[in-house]
Amino acid sequence: MRVAARPSDLVGDTPLLDLSSLVPNHNATLLGKMESLGPCSSVKDRLGKSMIDRAEKDGLLIPGKSVLVEATSGNTGIALAFIARERGYRCILTMPETMSVERRMMLLALGAEVVLTPKETVVHGALAKAHEILQELGGKGVMLNQFVNPANPAIHRETTGPEIWRDTEGTIDIFVAGVGTGGTVTGVSQYIKGCTEFDCPPLKPELYTVAVEPQEQMLITEARGGTKIGPQGPHRIQGIGAGLVPEVLDITLLDEVVAVHSSIAEAMTFKLWMMGLPTGVSSGAIVEAAVQVCSRPETKTK
Fold first, then answer.
1. What DSSP element (H or E) covers 159?
2. Is 41 noted as a catalytic residue in this protein?
3. Pairwise CA distance, residues 42 & 23, whole Å
4. pLDDT of 234-281, one tens digit each?
5. Same domain? 192 vs 291
6. Which residue segment(s) compose the domain that 260 sits in?
7. Model's pTM, two decimal places?
8. Residue 121: which pLDDT band, with cuts at 50, 70 and 90?
């Protein structure tokens, strides 16, 4: 029998779904990886489990003693709260007050303590508050820091990348991912393109990697020497565009950055819901970017 011993054992090994009907004239095959089928419905389930597993292995987290503290925009916090509840850790999460009420309710239901920070300070305010709480807790507090934690891209080198390679039978030509922390786009690209630092042999060095960020906050585009489009400031795509260029993001692996406006991301999200896929707006942004790339003449038959 295939039976999981505990909820966290269900993380990963998600299927692919054919979304080619969204591409005009079926110019290219578009596949979506269904991370929504994980226990807490996002790719961050992998990250939460990976960071806690690594911290426990390294002796940084001690059940019944340690307190998890983390700054989050939502989904990483949900994943951490889920694993913390399963393993008996107290969990304190800081997040901007702009995050949805639904996310806050889910965190509270999982037993986490939620501390909101002013919307003007975006993720920087949440990080500062997390460090403040960490100091107050003394030696009991442990901050995993998703933006710099090497376990972040590692879990995607070890699981997400291999799953995509296996399920596409090596035929993947283009990989499109949103950038919140940068762990997914970095880890998957390292696995498929190859990375000597982590002993990843090149499976397909010519893989074309596309990062997605909000048009209203084009920090990755700027970091790569590109030009910003339109007014810059707050956006409505929760889950990507954290207001910084994450340390774990390896921008040398990126071949292109596609910026999607919040309103366009919301329109695609609505379209996905009409297809029976109740996704979040960050998924809408990623699918919109992927459709744009797939619609180009040069991607025909990809």
1. none
2. no
3. 24
4. 999 999 998 899 999 999 999 999 999 999 999 999 999 999 999 999
5. yes
6. 7-36+150-297
7. 0.94
8. confident
Domain edge (last residue) among 83, 113, 143: 143
Q: How confident is the model at residue 119 (pLDDT cuts 50, 70, 90)?
A: confident
Average pLDDT across the chain, whole number: 95
Annotated catalytic residue 295: no
Q: In this structure, are 51 and 22 located in the same domain?
A: no
- What's the number of domains the chain is made of? 2
CATH of the domain at 83: 3.40.50.1100
Say yes or no: 121 and 167 in one domain: no
In terms of Cα–Cα distance, which of 121, 122, 76 is closest to 241?
A: 122
Model confidence over 99-115: pLDDT tens digits? 888 889 999 999 999 99
DSSP string, 219-267: HHHHHTT----S--S--S-TTS--SS--TT--GGG-SEEEEE-HHHHHH
Give the pLDDT score at 63.
87
Q: Which of 8, 36, 73, 282 is catalytic?
A: 282
Please identify which of the residues 44, 49, 129, 193 carries the catalytic annotation: 44
Task: Of 105, 102, 104, 107, give the one whose Cα is nearest residue 84.
Answer: 107
